[in-house]
């Protein structure tokens, strides 16, 4: 549905594509976490031309894998997120937004990206501390440097694998800050599917819009786990207008696969006004409050 609407808008808005630009903050320090990290900020086309405009923001984990091939964990394999965002914004499919790539803590990555300590692995469980870093240090810094809109409706969190796990966990923990979350191939397996149990234990559905996906070539067990998480979200009250679940046919667990569906993620979470109006019309009968 989203893909068809996006194609219709592209046909009406065909024209030159502007990719936007990147701003880097290397070695961003923290008094909360033990390691510094690089931050890369994507500014959308036209950012410098509208000095009074404020923009929604999507914070994405494993930021070194998003924009540039030479910084990616697997050299040459990255999401190409700047190109995708620039194209969709220029075509009028996605509203102009700021993307913040948050580099991981290297050897601290597993600990920072997991909500509980897995006694079998003897690691993990510092996601709440990582959340403090985002809430108390990084977001205020980004807000001070760029024209961000602020508020949960204009602030999202996302990632892949363990980065998706921590993003979903923190968005559900802090819906007053994050109103949108992109969970690509989340590590549902962590600590015996702990995130599924956390969703089931929620007293009510937080006001958070969720993108959830899995590649069909990531393994039958991983697909089964993703479906468990999807079903837990639906049982808690998420409906079509607030939850998009995708099983990407033939997709494996890597940066190129996530990059291939990043456009659909942005279109679902940050649709331009024409796309949003059509989606609202199509889901008018959806009772999700």
Count of extended strands: 10
Question: What global shape is seen?
Answer: globular
Determine the mean pLDDT: 91
% residues in beta strands: 15-25%
Could you spell the SSE succession in H and E letters? HEEEHEHEEHEHEHEHEHHH
Question: Treating each run of at least 4 consecutive H or I residues as one helix, how many helices?
Answer: 10
Structural class: alpha/beta
Cα distance spanning the termini: 22 Å
CATH topology description: Rossmann fold
Low-confidence stretches: 8-15
SSE topology:
Layout: H1 2-12, E1 21-28, E2 37-43, E3 57-61, H2 81-91, E4 98-102, H3 109-112, E5 117-118, E6 123-124, H4 127-145, E7 155-160, H5 162-173, E8 180-184, H6 190-200, E9 209-215, H7 220-235, E10 243-248, H8 255-260, H9 262-269, H10 273-282
Parallel strand pairs: 3-4, 3-7, 7-8, 8-9, 9-10
Antiparallel strand pairs: 1-2, 2-4, 5-6
Structure description:
The chain is an alpha/beta fold and 289 residues long. It has a single domain (2-282), classed as Alpha/Beta hydrolase fold, catalytic domain (Rossmann fold), CATH 3.40.50. It has helices at 2-12, 81-91, 109-112, 127-145, 162-173, 190-200, 220-235, 255-260, 262-269, 273-282; strands spanning 21-28, 37-43, 57-61, 98-102, 117-118, 123-124, 155-160, 180-184, 209-215, 243-248. The strands form 2 sheets. The chain has an 8-stranded mixed β-sheet, with helices on both faces. A two-stranded antiparallel ribbon has the order 5-6. Strand 7, helix 5 and strand 8 form a beta-alpha-beta unit. The longest helix is centred in the middle third of the chain and has 19 residues, at 127-145.
């Amino acid at each position: 549905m989203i893909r068809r609407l996006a194609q219709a808008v592209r046909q009406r808005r065909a024209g030159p594509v502007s990719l936007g630009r990147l701003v880097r903050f290397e070695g961003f320090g923290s008094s909360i976490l033990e390691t510094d990290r690089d931050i890369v900020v994507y500014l959308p086309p036209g950012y410098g031309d509208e000095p009074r405009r404020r923009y929604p923001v999507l914070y994405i984990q494993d930021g070194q894998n998003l924009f540039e091939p030479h910084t990616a964990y697997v050299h040459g394999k990255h999401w190409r997120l700047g190109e995708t965002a620039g194209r969709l914004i220029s075509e009028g499919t996605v509203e102009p937004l700021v993307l913040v790539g948050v580099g991981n803590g290297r050897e601290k990555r597993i600990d920072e990206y997991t909500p509980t300590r897995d006694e079998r692995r003897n690691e993990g469980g510092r996601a709440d501390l990582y959340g403090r870093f985002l809430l108390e240090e990084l977001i205020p810094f980004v807000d001070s440097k760029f024209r961000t809109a602020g508020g949960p409706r204009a602030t999202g969190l996302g990632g892949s694998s363990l980065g998706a796990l921590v993003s979903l966990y923190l968005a559900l923990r802090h819906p007053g800050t994050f109103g949108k979350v992109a969970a690509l191939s989340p590590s549902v397996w962590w600590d015996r599917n702990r995130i599924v149990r956390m969703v089931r234990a929620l007293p009510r559905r937080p006001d958070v819009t969720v993108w959830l996906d899995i590649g069909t070539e990531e393994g039958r067990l991983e697909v089964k786990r993703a479906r468990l998480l999807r079903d837990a979200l639906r049982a808690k009250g998420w409906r079509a207008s607030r939850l998009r679940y995708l099983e990407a046919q033939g997709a494996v667990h890597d940066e190129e696969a996530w990059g291939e569906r990043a456009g659909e993620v942005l279109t679902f979470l940050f649709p331009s006004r024409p796309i949003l109006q059509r989606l609202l019309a199509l889901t008018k009968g959806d009772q999700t409050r």
